[in-house]
Amino acid sequence: MAELVIVNTCTVTAATDSQSRNLIRRARRMNAQARVVVTGCYAQVDPQALAALPGVALVIGNEEKQDFLARLTELESDCIQIQVTDIRQVDVAKTLPLSSFEQRSRAFVQIQNGCDAFCSYCIIPYARGRSRSVASVDVVKQVENLSAAGYPEIVLTGIHIGNYGQDLQPKLDLLTLLKQIENSNFSGRLRLGSIEPTELPTELLDYIAAAGWICPHYHIPLQAGDDQILKQMNRHYTTGFFRDLLAAIRRRQPQAAIGLDIITGFPGETEQQFIATCELLSALPFTHLHVFPFSRRPGTPAAEMAGQLPGDIIKQRAVRLRQIGEQKLADYSRQFVGQTLAVVIEGGEVAGRKKGLSQNYLPIWLSAAEVEQGQCLPVAIAGYRSDGLYGKIA
Ligand code: SF4
């Protein structure tokens, strides 16, 4: 039975806060003597609330997490400690030099942390601090090391990766970083994490489209399908700009995956604005949709806005948007039947089948007897079912 339980929390929505509290209570139920250490974004923004839960011995902020083991060693037996400082004061991005990712076939390299955009609904700038970038030499070294360790795919992650390098001396940008990776000893494929629509200039789109080693996959937050709501969200683009951006990507890469994030139920969202969002989404050439029901985050401007919508309306709208997303994904997936895709095989097995991920972010199912986790294989796509495409090694 665990005597010490570490809970790494998320606070992006009220639901994730609640899940974190439930995990802490569960740890205590399983062993009434267990001491619980809480860290992560919820710990960063509301340490007092977590320290008040039974069994919590230590609350560690996101920056303090860097010295996690030392702080655990110093943990005193019978007093509750809060070790959380003002993360907005931190201006250097520290990352853990990870050399393996348990049970994962793809490796993740954090190139940036924090955000200065302060979208009106978002708690992340308060939980992660200001935007700060990892030195490009360290990013390249980490990418090379993970590639040499056998990972066939590396994902570049961050909170605001389009802002990469703007805080470094001299300043850099994402395109320069990608060129440095291209000229390194990296072999394999690279995937970009989520990137803001205003941070995909023409030169970057051209470069990605021409780079066969970068997965043809964009993840771009749209967040609202109405210009007035975008303004209230403090997002600095219009739906017209977004439409043009997706058209520009499609011109260069007709079969690329394009994932969007959308929030529904933002304060004051009218039925008309919601319908306009549905129409916009139906018309946009995207392939994956991540729907987020609006969640009131204390401390953000949107939490105090007039016109907060009832939960059941937000839920209904989210269901409708997810239906649009599912249809787009099914239509997109079917295009690849009869084609060959490069697939990285993931861990786990379901009913004799293993799942892999294609370069264009589609789940592909194969017979488990044919493949092993971590392989990157050409797969001939034979058909489509509700859980994704399936095929055989080409
Ligand atoms: S850009 Fe993203 S992380 Fe930054 S405030 Fe907006 S939604 Fe949050």
Topology:
Blueprint: E1 4-9, H1 14-30, E2 35-40, H2 41-45, H3 47-51, E3 56-60, H4 68-73, E4 81-83, E5 106-110, E6 112-113, H5 124-128, E7 132-133, H6 136-148, E8 153-157, H7 174-182, E9 189-192, H8 202-210, E10 217-223, H9 227-232, H10 239-252, E11 257-264, H11 271-283, E12 288-293, H12 311-334, E13 340-345, E14 353-358, E15 363-367, E16 376-385, E17 388-393
Parallel strand pairs: 1-2, 2-3, 3-4, 5-8, 8-9, 10-11, 11-12, 15-17
Antiparallel strand pairs: 6-7, 13-14, 13-16, 14-15, 16-17
Bound molecules: iron/sulfur cluster.
The strand count comes to 17
The DSSP helix count reads 12
Indicate the mean pLDDT.
Answer: 95
Helicity, in percent?
Answer: 25-40%
Q: Which parts are unreliable, with pLDDT below 50 for 5 consecutive residues or more?
A: none
* Separation of the first and last Cα atoms: 47 Å
Alpha carbon gyration radius: 22 Å
CATH top level of the largest domain is: Alpha Beta
Q: Number of domains in the coordinates?
A: 3
Indicate the overall shape: globular
Give the biggest beta sheet.
5 strands, mixed, barrel
What is the N-to-C succession of helices and strands? EHEHHEHEEEHEHEHEHEHHEHEHEEEEE
What is the fold-level CATH name, i.e. the topology of the largest domain? pyruvate-formate lyase- activating enzyme
**Strand-pairing-aware structural class:** alpha/beta
Report the portion of residues in β strands. 15-25%
- The CATH H-level superfamily of the largest domain is tm_1862 like domain
